[in-house]
Amino acid sequence: MSKISAHLPSSITPFSVISQIARRIRIVPLVILLISTVPAWFLTETIAPQVVRAYTARVDLAIDRLPDENYETVLRRAEAAARAAAQRSFDQDILVTDVSIIVSVQNYGAIAPVLTLDVSRPQWRSRPDAQNWATYFKTARSLLFFENSSNPVPTASSVPTQK
Questions:
Q1: What gap in Å lies between CA 1 and CA 46, rounded to an integer?
Q2: Which of these, 86, 83, 64, 62, lies nearest to 73 by C-alpha position?
Q3: Alpha-carbon distance 136 to 126, whole Å?
Q4: Which of 93, 90, 105 is nearest to 143 (CA)?
Q5: Do 98 and 59 contact (CB within 8 A), yes or no?
Q6: Which of helix, strand or coil describes residue 62?
Q7: Three-state DSSP class for 59?
Q8: What number is the average pLDDT over the span 24-29?
Q9: Strand pairing partners for 64?
Q10: How many angstroms separate the CA atoms of 107 and 142, rounded?
Q11: What is the pLDDT of residues 100-112, one digit of tens each?
């Protein structure tokens, strides 16, 4: 048979040296964990940096044809409006990397895009000229009825009808 003996709490002798060592053993991993987080963060940032939140600003402009204004004058006003919008977009938001601007013209109720300006910030910084970066729509002149200079207002006889 086996003898079972119960130890009373008073019979256990406290070892203060062992308890101090146990506390130090628990503190050391905590200190190592706290010290290693900063280098680990730097390492992850150098390997895989966070994505920059840059974006493209899109602007739609509409201008009206003034009385006795020809197509070339309207086009110059559209370029000036596009240039101002591009500069304003880059100045207002530092995260904008590209600007996309569409300028439409209204002439006697007809509306058509005349140019689009797509430019990046470095391109614009090197040459802030709307004519250099603009793409012109060739059919805008006829869509806006600028082809027929003798009759600037489209009439019922000049608009094709279906029969």
A1: 68
A2: 64
A3: 21
A4: 105
A5: no
A6: strand
A7: strand
A8: 66
A9: 106
A10: 11
A11: 999 999 998 999 9
